[in-house]
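for the recovery benchmark. tokens below, seq after
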């Protein structure tokens, strides 16, 4: 039996990392670890407590220092639980997503959640996605993927996802938000977004979700074959 691997998927916001990681994990029978949801959960807890960045960074770090994170399958869908609470729906709110970037740049928050992520990935057979998995969180991951797409393509996909709930948004607004998020994620002092030297880059413009999943699974199988040779 081929030993399971640790797979890291990084890339900018809107690249489809969550959907791809979830699909790859399902295809391989691996566990999917959504690190973005962890930072969104930290942001939600901060907002719930009336805290903001940068005024309340120490208080936010105190909150995250006590976060107990689990990923549980409910009716076939993986959901994030924090301190026993199901926060899956809350962490997907747009305002929580906007708050997650400044919260994730707090060094103490990253330190606490970094250890949690490494603990979750201690057993092989995991797919973890985020923005610094292959460079910081799991630098020894067996397979590293950097999934990206043009800002325009990512904005188009994002608008398609949210237009039913937010019909007032225009492509130009979503694109501007996308470009701003890229700038913040790439220029922050703590764990900026960048591709690991040994990562395989996949530019998904023009590719379907299934095609991207197929490509990642091919890379994993090639790694397995090379290791078993």
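predicted aa per position
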């Amino acid at each position: 039996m081929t030993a399971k691997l640790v797979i890291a998927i990084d890339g900018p916001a809107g690249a489809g990392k969550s959907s791809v990681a979830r699909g790859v994990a399902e295809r391989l029978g691996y566990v999917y670890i959504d690190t973005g949801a962890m930072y969104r959960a930290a942001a939600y807890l901060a907002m719930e407590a009336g805290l903001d960045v940068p005024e309340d960074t120490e208080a936010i770090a105190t909150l995250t220092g006590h976060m107990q994170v689990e990923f549980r399958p409910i009716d076939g869908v993986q959901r994030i639980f924090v301190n026993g609470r199901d926060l899956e729906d809350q962490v997907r709110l747009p305002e929580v997503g906007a708050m997650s970037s400044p919260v994730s740049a707090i060094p103490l928050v990253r330190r606490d959640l970094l250890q949690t992520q490494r603990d979750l990935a201690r057993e092989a057979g995991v797919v973890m996605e985020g923005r610094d998995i292959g460079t910081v969180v799991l630098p020894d991951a067996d397979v590293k993927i950097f999934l990206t797409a043009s800002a325009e393509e990512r904005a188009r996909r994002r608008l398609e996802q949210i237009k039913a709930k937010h019909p007032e948004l225009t492509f130009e607004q979503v694109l501007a938000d996308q470009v701003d998020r890229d700038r913040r994620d790439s220029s922050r002092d703590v764990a900026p977004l960048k591709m690991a030297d040994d990562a395989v880059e996949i530019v998904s413009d023009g590719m379907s979700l299934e095609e991207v999943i197929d490509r990642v699974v091919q890379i994993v199988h090639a790694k397995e074959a090379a290791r078993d040779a």
